[in-house]
Design goal:
Low-confidence stretches: 1-12
Structural class: alpha/beta
Radius of gyration: 22 Å
Strand order of the largest sheet: 5-4-13-14-15-12-16
Number of helices: 13
Strand content: 25-35%
Mean pLDDT: 90
Shape: globular
């Protein structure tokens, strides 16, 4: 008997149909839980297949209970990358401090999971692929609400009507734009631009991060395991978001090459690799802050609704928790009541975690020489301390049990 069969007695005569835009983390997680509660789920994803690889992501606090309830915790535990050391370097390449990663991020060593993003998305997809319709290489072009549902026109030209629709399509959500207008209204720029790509592991790094800092600049090499390649990361302070520069790959490369001119350590080689990288991803560091997460029959979840930025380390965890709370809030309610319950039960947790900016990774990128020296002094002290428990914000929400009575 499948999970869907167990809940069959709680369906209406016709299963309510829903469309989810986005198949990264929030989308498949939401699909899993909505399917459990008897909805007929379709997921549309603009990529031609699941995106593999990518930087490792963290699953922490309350989100750990979500993946346990989904039954994918053992798989994620086996995929844990176990980064063991975070070494900070000064402008000359000399060591400032070498400490446990959990001490830096405010995580709970021994409990938190760190997995490749592709491993998490694949685990979520595998958990739901046999029960949910996936449409790859397509996307939502328009979504018009009416008394009968949400009339969706897809980029490929087809049209379908769903009872409800959800945007799980990330920081630059098209669904959010259709629902509430331009991103600029809700986009909170945090003062940095970043770039990520891969390059050969010629230093022989293993299970570790090495990060070079100068005021307003950071360059890191992240070895996931002991493979032949490492993830490179560049971060530069920029008082205002560069207008349009990060939309063009050539402009992206030039922005970072200019910002890191004259830098030491391995940075010149990283910039050379950046110019030829075929997996370059660049963007501004930002959050999404919305006054509400739904309108009518459409709701947002994950980064589309409340991107916290990588500075909090909580993006994946908020997506998992938000998906659980959204689906559960709709288990026995109509859209209006369910969406209101979703916001009531989840917003405080989201805001608390978004407000972690400045209390963790944000402090890793000082913009002045004085702030950098203060940070280095802090790191030297941390290096002499044992790892502590996770940050309270990560576990500030106790998951309700939405399971229908049987």
């Amino acid at each position: 008997m499948t999970p869907t069969d167990r809940f069959a007695g709680h369906r209406t005569q016709r299963r309510r149909t829903v469309l989810i835009s986005g198949a990264s983390i929030a989308g498949p997680a939401l699909a899993y839980w909505l399917n459990r509660y008897g909805y007929a789920v379709t997921v549309v994803e603009k990529a031609h297949a699941l995106r593999g690889g990518g930087y490792p992501v963290d699953v922490r606090g309350t989100a750990l209970e979500v993946v346990r309830r989904m039954g994918i915790w053992p798989r994620l535990r086996d995929a844990h990358v176990d980064t063991r050391r975070f070494t900070f370097l000064d402008e000359t390449g000399g060591t400032v401090a070498s400490i446990a990663p959990h001490t830096v991020a405010g995580g709970d060593e021994g409990s938190d999971l760190e997995v490749r993003r592709g491993d998490l998305t694949d685990a979520l997809y595998t958990a739901v692929r046999d029960d949910v319709e996936f449409l790859f290489d397509d996307s939502v072009d328009s979504a018009d609400q009416s008394g009968r549902g949400v009339d969706v026109t897809f980029r490929g030209g087809s049209r379908r009507t769903f009872d409800l629709a959800f945007g799980a399509d990330g920081l630059h959500s098209h669904t959010r734009e259709l629902l509430f207008g331009p991103e600029a209204r809700f986009h909170r720029y945090l003062g940095y631009c970043f770039a990520g790509f891969t390059l050969p592991n010629h230093l022989g790094l293993s299970h570790e991060v090495m990060m070079w800092n100068a005021p307003g600049r950071a360059a890191a090499l992240y070895a996931v395991g002991d493979g032949d390649h490492v993830h490179a990361f560049l971060n530069v302070a920029h008082p205002q978001p560069p207008p349009g520069a990060l939309r063009d790959p050539g402009a992206q490369r030039e922005l970072f090459a200019t910002a890191f001119a004259g830098a030491g350590w391995e940075v010149p080689g990283m910039i050379a690799a950046l110019r030829d990288a075929d997996d370059l991803f660049a963007d501004v560091v930002s959050q999404i802050r919305l006054p509400r997460w739904s309108s009518g029959r459409i709701a947002l979840v994950g980064d589309a609704a409340y991107a916290p930025s990588f500075l909090t380390g909580q993006g994946s965890s908020l997506a998992l928790v938000g998906a659980y709370m959204l689906a559960g809030s709709l288990a026995r309610r109509d859209a209006a009541e369910g969406f209101a319950a979703y916001e009531h039960g989840t917003r405080g947790f989201v805001t608390l975690n978004q407000d972690q900016i400045g209390q963790g990774d944000a402090a890793l990128f000082p913009t002045t020489a004085r702030a950098l020296e203060r940070r280095n002094d802090m790191l030297r002290r941390l290096g002499a301390l044992p790892s502590g428990a996770g940050r309270p914000a990560h576990s500030a929400l106790t998951l309700p049990d939405f399971t229908p009575d049987r």
